[in-house]
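Below is the record:
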Amino acid sequence: MGVRQPDFTGSWYPDTERGCRAVFDDFERESTDLGGTGELVAGIVPHAGWMFSGRIAYDVIRAVARHSTADTVALFGGHLRPSSPITVMDSGDFWTPLGSIPTDEELAAAVCAGETRVTRESPERHAPDNTIELQAPIIRHLMPEAKILVIGAPPREETLRLAADLVAHAQRLGRGLAVIGSTDLTHYGPNYGWAPRGHGAEALRWVREENDPRWIELACKLDPEGMIQEALDHHNACCPGAAAAAARAARELGHASGRLLSYATSADVRPDASFVGYAGIVF
């Protein structure tokens, strides 16, 4: 059994347990308690370097960890095109500085044997992926007993069917399931080759108050098809398939709406002509 090695430690997030826990202590001091919120089964998290969006991701996973009974966390991610294959890491462990997370191989086998065609990945054969890796240490810290199921989710209907099948397989196997979808929002400016509203304060206002909120509204309404189409039309989510899969799974688990936990942009940390939006949403 192999162990999937990291590609972003020491730059996007700390490469030691002590370093990660120090950051988590800071995140805890800044976190908001959800109080009497009922069961949470899923969430949407950003995946930039922790200095930009780690707190938002931490808050979402913290909320799900505190308000669910998950044996397995299904983690959807991937910067994928609609034509990209769906991928599943079906064996091995996922390394983090806090210890490795085992794959739920029984659930992975059930998903891979289903009607939806998938490409199997392994610890030794996979593409580097910040959308997934940046969440793994947070999951290991907040849900230390949970297993993981890593799924690359292209933005198309087939991915949504797989998300629904995942829930059915988990229920048949008696798994307590939590689902996390990883996406950043609008990538704006010269670094990304997209600036329809020029540059400066008006561009930042438009992203914060118009472009990103349209997508967030669809996510909170649990409209996975709308989330995918909105992102493809308006460039306001970079991994809409992953986020939409989480929304579809939440719907299959009996939830009807989501809640925006927090929103920010990279410009809040480092003002620049190029910036990215981040949202934390719980279902």
Notes: The longest helix spans residues 201-220. The mean pLDDT is 96.
